[in-house]
Amino acid sequence: MKKKYIHLVEQTFEFPQNRFSLDENFDLLFENINLKAIAKKYGTPLKITYLNKIGEQIEKSRMWFQNAINRAAFSGTYHYCYCTKSSHFKFVLEEVLSHGAHIETSSAFDMVLIENLRRSGKLNLDKKIICNGYKTAEYLNEIARFLELGYNNLVVVLDNKTELNRLKSLTRKPIKLGIRIASEEEPKFAFYTSRLGIGYKDILPYYKLAIEDDKQVSLQMLHFFINTGIHDTAYYWNELRKALNVYTSLAKVCSSVNDLNIGGGLPIPHSLKFNFEYAEMVNEIVLQIKTHCSDANIQHPDIYTEFGSFTVGESGLTLFKVLKQKQQNDRERWNLIDGSFMTTLPDTWAINKRFILFPLNAWDYEYERVLLGGLTCDSDDYYNSEQHTNAIYLPKLEKEDLYIGFFNTGAYQESLSGYGGIQHCLIPYPKHLLMRKLENGDLDIEVFREAQQSTEMLKTLGYD
Ligand SMILES: Cc1ncc(COP(=O)(O)O)c(C=O)c1O
Asked: Is the pLDDT score of 186 beyond 70?
């Protein structure tokens, strides 16, 4: 009988695969790194950022787009931007910048962060910065300050029709503009039209009314993003086509418009069964843009993307130890972890998101079906199914401790959980490591932040 955990995995997926394999002791190897050893050495719960992955993703995307451009004989160029909101950490931004990516911002504080990086020599005034998002007074003040400082490649993507006049009242400097198209939402969504951006039909009239004759401003970019992301669905292609209609009609009357920004939304694996054909999808996107523009007799645009999850998601790992098993009835065996899902992986709770999950050891043990519970008192602090199986199977706890890892957790989780702030039930935020594989194959590990201390939380709460 094949009852060991390894057998279950081999029956369910192709294994070993990509970044995952096993060593001779049946411990999991991630990128050839024994994570159990790291979990034991540094303690759990543990967040890890594997820095190498960030640059790899940027280069992969550039390769897919360049190949697609060559294949389609497309005359525009491709530009990779990183959307800071998916992870604002300095080590992420430094990594992204070291690979020459442009930056997309979404708030006033984002601008402060960019200026900090410039002052420390990580970028200069020529860096392309795409200011997206709703512009509060503070955000507009920052944008104006940047223009006054001499940032000369800043593109302000208008989210609504009032932003331009408000910005013009703050600066006399030339302003490069973009416009965000308010896409129509997926049929199953609660609303018809996205609250973000300006409606399709309003864009051309708005350009003629407010931008065309204004010498201070030039329209350069059309921005399009649908929150379901880039997928081979009728909905995606339909929205892209509508965006291209707006782009071509604008380009016919506005010679400065040359950039088409297709936003973020390139997916990442949430299961070993994930099978997204990246290169084919990119080929098709470039081909659609080319065909549409050639048919309309306009120059092919430069293509911009703002991949967030794709850039940082796969760099993140979250490790826990199973503290104890509680059998509540015949069917429910709870493995209680030494952390919280709600606070360290909030997407699992808020939007029912699934991550790749594997035990870090004991793959030669028999498996059993379990539920995974977090440490807070909240009954919703649990994780009970994987995307591919609808259940969780883990090695049966025996003599040794069982460690588990959630993979591809590098995007959005820290900002959504309020990293370093007050956590539910005052469960502390985990220790955070930065890991980098050096060229000689050695592994460099740095403690970025120790686990949150009670003193930090008490101070935030007003206790001295
Ligand atoms: C304007 C814009 N660009 C890019 C992104 C990044 O999306 P993703 O992380 O799915 O790549 C977002 C995410 O909300 C966004 O709103």
From this structure: no
For residue 29, pLDDT beyond 60: yes
Which architecture, in CATH terms, is 74-307? Alpha-Beta Barrel (3.20)
Confidence of residue 399 (pLDDT cuts 50, 70, 90): confident
Residue 267 Cα: closest atom of ligand 1: 10
Q: Which class is domain 5-51+315-460?
A: mainly beta
Closest CA to 231 of 191, 195, 190, 284: 284
CA dist 26 to 6, 15, 22, Å?
8, 13, 6
Segment 209-246, tens digit of pLDDT: 999 999 999 999 999 988 889 999 999 999 999 999 99
* Pocket (CB within 6 angstroms of ligand 1): 83, 86, 104, 132, 225, 229, 263-266, 306-310, 411
Residues in the chain: 464
CA nearest neighbour of 197 among 177, 224, 221, 230: 224
203 C-alpha vs ligand 1 centroid, how far in Å?
Answer: 21
Mutate to test the pocket of ligand 1, among 107, 306, 414 (most ligand atoms within 8 A of CB): 306
- Bridge partners of 322, per DSSP, are 337
Ligand 1 mean position, distance from CA 85 (Å): 8
Domain ranges of the chain: 5-51+315-460, 74-307
E strand or H helix at 319: strand 316-327
Q: Over 70: is that where the pLDDT of 388 sits?
A: no
Per-residue model confidence as pLDDT tens digits over 106-155: 999 999 999 999 999 999 999 999 999 999 999 999 999 999 999 999 99
Nearest CA to ligand 1 atom 5: 264
Structure tokens at 103: 């930056």
Whether the pTM exceeds 0.70: the reply is yes
Atom of ligand 1 nearest to the CA of 86: 9
Q: Residue 180 class from Cβ within 10 Å (0-12 exposed, 13-18 middle, 19+ buried)?
A: buried
In this prediction, residue 240 carries a pLDDT of: 94
Ligand 1 centroid, distance to 382 Cα (angstroms)? 27
